[in-house]
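Hi V.,

You were right to ask for the full record rather than a summary. Here it is.
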Amino acid sequence: MSSLKGIRVLELAQIMAGPTCGLLLADLGADVIKIEKTPSGDDTRNFLPPDIKGESAAFMMMNRNKKGIALNLKDKDGVEIFKRMVKKTDVVLENFRKGTLEKLGIGYDVISKINPKIILCEISGYGRTGPYSDKGGFDLVAQGMSGLMSITGESKEKPPMKVGAPITDITAGLLATSGILAAIIHRNNTGEGQKVDTSLFEAGIVHTYWQSAIAGATGKSPGPLGSAHPLTAPYQAFKTKDKWITIGASNQNTWLKLIKAINREDLQENEKFSSNLKRKQNLNELVEILTNELSKKSSSEWLKIFDENGFPCGPINSITEMFKDPQTIVREMIIEVENNKAGKSKAIGMPIKFSKSKTEKSKGAPNLGEHTKEVMMSFDYSEVEIKDFFKRKVII
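Predicted structure:
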């Protein structure tokens, strides 16, 4: 059985952070009902190009395995429909600005009276408390404010650089998932629902563990190091004869494996490189020596040699190369799903595997309002009522 079979989630969220959470919960077996605004739906539907037969590839990536309805929450009947849904729901997930649900008349004080066991998960820019709680959140801004952009890039002399992926959005979704699962366990033990509150800002901060350890211990903020590690060396990308690869000499054992593999065991006799501390202190000189050695063979040759010596290494794949990697394929991390309009499209698969629990076979993302009638009927609305709601555009 799926781990979250029987858990119903109402996803009042759009773009990335909330939908990331909803996606993972759906893969774990929850019945996730995505409630989109009328008349246009999730803003990601307009993230074009790319599209597949007119459907946004970005929307389809983030919203597979969910049922989709479109509901006008600015209409009093739309609010009443939502309240009825809350009665038979476990989790409400939202990423609006602070106070939005209250203005709509469906804040936690209201829905917790309708269903005392309800779990409301709020994902915001900065959290629901503190001086920034009223501000909207964006990944780029959160990366800057959390310190991430100060440690990303080649050097302090270069312009600030963000992480290529919207990492605070995605991580906030993962943190929200963890919080919801903890709240479900709490409810199972006590019968109590509660609010779960996380943010893009905090999601950025948790990625600074090593750099915050340095700052906390020294009082100084470390800067960007390119692909290098702030605490160990050599642990970064290197150019070979033809391409770039990564090597991970993260401790003394892997360092010894590296110099053996490149036939430079004499480096261990050099006092400048005899320990991790010395290698960090003399990193520029070490990088120059290693780059010279690695430039003598191609990436494929070095990767073969390093693998044979049990040394951590890897290619720097493009996204399409990652798609074709045999490990990606075996672990089913790139899957194909079906959308009623777009047909087949690529999606990222479930990143957690279980020995007992099953995960849900993935369905494609819903078209706008695709499951509205089906969902309404599951909450005991009659055909006549549903037809009237459609006619008045309370639902689409």
